[in-house]
Amino acid sequence: MGIEVVVESLTKTFGRRAVWRDVTLSLPPGEVSVMLGPSGTGKTVFLKSLIGLIKPDRGRVLVDGVDTAHCSERELFQVRKKFGVLFQDGALFGSMNLFDNIAFPLREHTKKTEAEIRRIVLERMDMVGLAGEERKLPGEISGGMRKRAGLARALVMDPQIILCDEPDSGLDPVRTTYLSQLLIDLNAQIDATILIVTHNIQVARTVPDNMGMLFRGDLVMFGPREVLLTSEVPAVAQFLDGSRIGPIGMSEEKDEATMAMEQAQVDAGHHGGGSGLDLRVVVPQLEPTPGLPPRQAVQRRKDRVMSMLHTLPPLAQKAILDSLTPADRERYRLRPGGDQPGPTPPGSWGTERPAAQTRPMMPADGTGQAPYSPNPQTPHGQHRYNPDPPPGTGRGGRP
Fold it and tell me: pLDDT tens digits, residue range 231-240?
């Protein structure tokens, strides 16, 4: 099974520019998470910080109990073996065929025989749909095949955590859907913890168990997918719709005057871009291809989310409850009306953490200031949902 990655108060600056500040979240073991955010918000920097390629100014990244931000080089080297990374462009060696590209980590970091390496490489190539393509060079294949080759290489060391940096970049919508399905299938087969950085809204709506968003140097939110997909936070709603109208601009510093001017143009009849649809609908999550085992993370996630249900916004609660099967409703002993779970069945949560230790990051308002107060009783500065937003604002900071 994949392992949990705990990020605590992570802060990174380059010169005077703060990339992000005080990022705190937890990637649940074996689950698929997505990190969204406009270009330039430090999503790739965040991935590099998780594996120790970039040192944060402060904060911790705990991977299997080891802080990758402050550990020794020897410890970091061992921790990195738990990661597999799918780079944005595949990052294949152009002079090597696909077999040698995928075999590279095994030859560099293990003492396996060539026969063992060949068996592992061919197995991983078959998992990603590249069986029989091992002799081809990266320049002879399509972008989608290069992505899959990069993914096969990320899998050869049997990672417990897989990081994917914009796996959909450069792919058409159909190939992106195939790649999304492949990631779900892999999770079903190896139960690894997966974090995907993407701009693709279709990927974000159909693939993950959890979602987060970075904007203006802050983690706007991170938690169950239903929280972000039903969010009324202006930046989140604008990003999901792809509209120009909202706090996200061509650069991140979009002032009130610019926002007012753009809104006036729309009011005068100019199209603001985007779909114009209300996308705050939680569509069904992709399931493994028929014939593959079910994802083990699904039940663990349901137990975890139901244990924190009372801390989530009402729209997210409704979306979660609507997704439950009759068997789920029986398992969680929902009260008549189905709006809240009844008493916890003995043993239902197994070894899950109590709700106060699940580290849910709740929505912030458009300025990045969370209308949720830190709980001094909660370890490591975790946050508890405060149902009362700041005076003068509605849910998500909207007047």
Answer: 989 889 888 8
Tokens 């938690």 correspond to 223
For domain 1-82+159-245+275-399, give the CATH superfamily: P-loop containing nucleotide triphosphate hydrolases (3.40.50.300)
Whether the Cβ atoms of residue 334 and residue 310 lie closer than 8 Å to each other:
no
Name the phi and psi angles at 368, rounded to 5. Answer: 90, 0
Please state the domain extents for the chain: 1-82+159-245+275-399
In 3-state terms, what secondary structure has residue 26? strand
Q: What is the pLDDT of residues 152-171, one digit of tens each?
A: 999 999 999 999 999 988 88
Strands (E), the chain: 5-14, 17-27, 32-36, 58-63, 66-67, 83-86, 161-165, 193-197, 210-215, 218-224
Encode pLDDT of 46-74 as tens digits.
999 999 999 999 999 999 989 999 999 99
Could you give the CA distance from residue 258 to residue 263 in angstroms, rounded to a whole number?
Answer: 9
